[in-house]
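FORM 7B: Structural annotation worksheet

SECTION A. Query
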Amino acid sequence: MQDTIRDFLSKAIFILVDILIITISLYLAFYIRNTLGFLPEHDIPIDRYINFYQIYVIVIFIFAYEGIYTQRYDFWHETRLILKAINIITSILNY
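SECTION B. Predicted structure
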C-alpha cells in the first residue's frame, strides 16, 4: 500500500514538474525572442502558446511511452530517451 502511494506521488510530481518546465521554457523563449534586437517583433501573444494544451499532452504521452516516468535509468540513458522523445515531439508538432 505504501509503495503504490509513493509510486503514484512520484509519478504525479514528475509530470507536474515537466508541465512547469514546459511553461517556463515557453515564457523564456517568448521573452528572449522579444528582447533580442536582430529578430523581428513577435506579434502572437504569449497566452496563445500557454493555452496550446496539445504541447503538454504530447510531451507527457511521449515521455510516458518512452518509460521515463516508470523506470529509473542512469543519467546518460535517460538523457538519450529524453532527446529521442524531443525529436519525436518536434516531428509531430512540425507535421
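SECTION C. Observations
The helical segments are 2-35, 46-50, 54-65, 75-94. Residues 2-94 form one domain.

SECTION D. Sign-off
Analyst initials: ____
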